[in-house]
Amino acid sequence: MATADFLPPFMFLLLISIFRTTLSTNSPNITTDQSALLALKSHITHDPHNLLATNWSTSTSVCSWIGVTCGSRHHRVIALDLSSMDLTGTIPSQLGNLSFLVSLNIRQNSFHGSLPTELTNLHRLKHLDFGNNSFGGEIPTWFGYFTKLERLYLFMNNFTGVIPSTFGNLSKLETLSMHDNNLKGYVPSSIFNISSLEQILLGDNNLFGHLSSNMFDYLPRLYQLDLRRCQLGRIPMSLFKCKNLNILDLVDNHLEGTVPLEISNLTSLKYFSIGRNNLSGKIPSIIGNKCSYNDLKGPIPQGKQFDTFTNDSYIGNLGLCGLPLSKGCDNDAETPTKLDRDDDDDDEIN
Ligand SMILES: *[C@@H]1O[C@H](CO)[C@@H](O)[C@H](O)[C@H]1NC(C)=O
Ligand SMILES: *[C@@H]1O[C@H](CO)[C@@H](O)[C@H](O)[C@H]1NC(C)=O
Ligand SMILES: *[C@@H]1O[C@H](CO)[C@@H](O)[C@H](O)[C@H]1NC(C)=O
Ligand SMILES: *[C@@H]1O[C@H](CO)[C@@H](O)[C@H](O)[C@H]1NC(C)=O
Ligand SMILES: *[C@@H]1O[C@H](CO)[C@@H](O)[C@H](O)[C@H]1NC(C)=O
Ligand SMILES: *[C@@H]1O[C@H](CO)[C@@H](O)[C@H](O)[C@H]1NC(C)=O
Ligand SMILES: *[C@@H]1O[C@H](CO)[C@@H](O)[C@H](O)[C@H]1NC(C)=O
Ligand SMILES: *[C@@H]1O[C@H](CO)[C@@H](O)[C@H](O)[C@H]1NC(C)=O
Ligand SMILES: *[C@@H]1O[C@H](CO)[C@@H](O)[C@H](O)[C@H]1NC(C)=O
Ligand SMILES: *[C@@H]1O[C@H](CO)[C@@H](O)[C@H](O)[C@H]1NC(C)=O
């Protein structure tokens, strides 16, 4: 304004230098990252192999610390990998100051407690792996702010509550792994609109299915689906549009009726598990593995893939006959279907 015209030059310079100081004290640098990591270190209550205790020392650069990777451009921490270090501890709010972090991996430790809101500042994250820890509390709605996230692993923790519908914001998500938690309620339909998804693993929670019939219309890249124990009731027809589906686990879903013939549309399928349902009719010849505890009838298909399954894959289906079960088939029984695809043998679910 007009007064500025009358400021003596030295006042003007003073203002600029005050502004500069304010700017530099507010702008985070590698020192910010160092204090964030030291805060994390101080929240580790058990470090049996003394990994951080000796290595994360202020006498060396943060960028040489074990598990830490810095970017060359901004000289800030871009990746933190503390996986499988047998650490016990909690996540401090200061971790949210690692604002250049692209990858955060603390898989397979014993971190517990809930996740601090400050983590929302990590808006550059593409890879977040908290799998196989002891985190609890609800899955925060602010996960929806991680719009660059490609891989999210929260499996094998003790997360409770519902899956927030804000997950629908994660438009670049490829892997969503939240199996083996204590989640409940419906799976938000917004998730099924993320067309980049390749793996959806939600099994072994207390989720409800009742997926609408067109639920899988927008998931062309899906290759692994784990909806164990989700009370689906029926298999949504649109699932058979997911041509790349490789691994499908629908164990314990109150499925009734016959296995839809359209299952044979899934030509990439290598692992299909439908045990502990109320399915009846003939064993689907295209896949057939792992279908214990249903009401399937007739001869077990023979062929490369089926031959690798032991009889516990079929147990609990009184009407099934033929190898590997000890019950032989009547002469009347239909010749078992041959299956001679060149598949590698059963991939396990990771
Ligand atoms: C980081 O910024 C602080 C002020 O916030 C400053 O004192 C420190 O020297 C800076 N460190 C580096 C490595 O630039
Ligand atoms: C910390 O560990 C890294 C990676 O193993 C190693 O390169 C570095 O020399 C170690 N630093 C100290 C002070 O032990
Ligand atoms: C880092 O995070 C803490 C807690 O979230 C905050 O109090 C602090 O001011 C932040 N900034 C720096 C530079 O450490
Ligand atoms: C989970 O982590 C524990 C160690 O904390 C390890 O012994 C176990 O094998 C891991 N389980 C899986 C399935 O990764
Ligand atoms: C998700 O997206 C909506 C609309 O694009 C936006 O209003 C919201 O702030 C985003 N973030 C979260 C966490 O929901
Ligand atoms: C999981 O969380 C529930 C509810 O907060 C709690 O009752 C239970 O003890 C926790 N289980 C484990 C293994 O931490
Ligand atoms: C999913 O996308 C379809 C087609 O774009 C749209 O009609 C539907 O409302 C979306 N559903 C959700 C839950 O976002
Ligand atoms: C299964 O494949 C057949 C032949 O390719 C096609 O006509 C049918 O629409 C497909 N069904 C589903 C549910 O995708
Ligand atoms: C199967 O159906 C029977 C009879 O309708 C019912 O009692 C049983 O609970 C069902 N089992 C499963 C696993 O849905
Ligand atoms: C399964 O196989 C074992 C040995 O391979 C056999 O002793 C057992 O009787 C079989 N069970 C059934 C139900 O066929």
From TrEMBL:
<dbReference type="InterPro" id="IPR001611">
    <property type="entry name" value="Leu-rich_rpt"/>
</dbReference>
<keyword id="KW-0677">Repeat</keyword>
<dbReference type="Pfam" id="PF08263">
    <property type="entry name" value="LRRNT_2"/>
</dbReference>
<dbReference type="InterPro" id="IPR032675">
    <property type="entry name" value="LRR_dom_sf"/>
</dbReference>
<feature type="signal peptide">
    <location>
        <begin position="1"/>
        <end position="24"/>
    </location>
</feature>
<keyword id="KW-1133">Transmembrane helix</keyword>
<keyword id="KW-0433">Leucine-rich repeat</keyword>
<dbReference type="InterPro" id="IPR003591">
    <property type="entry name" value="Leu-rich_rpt_typical-subtyp"/>
</dbReference>
<dbReference type="Pfam" id="PF00560">
    <property type="entry name" value="LRR_1"/>
</dbReference>
<dbReference type="InterPro" id="IPR053211">
    <property type="entry name" value="DNA_repair-toleration"/>
</dbReference>
<dbReference type="Pfam" id="PF13855">
    <property type="entry name" value="LRR_8"/>
</dbReference>
<keyword id="KW-0812">Transmembrane</keyword>
<keyword id="KW-0732">Signal</keyword>
<feature type="domain" description="Leucine-rich repeat-containing N-terminal plant-type">
    <location>
        <begin position="32"/>
        <end position="70"/>
    </location>
</feature>
<protein>
    <recommendedName>
        <fullName>Leucine-rich repeat-containing N-terminal plant-type domain-containing protein</fullName>
    </recommendedName>
</protein>
<keyword id="KW-0472">Membrane</keyword>
<dbReference type="InterPro" id="IPR013210">
    <property type="entry name" value="LRR_N_plant-typ"/>
</dbReference>
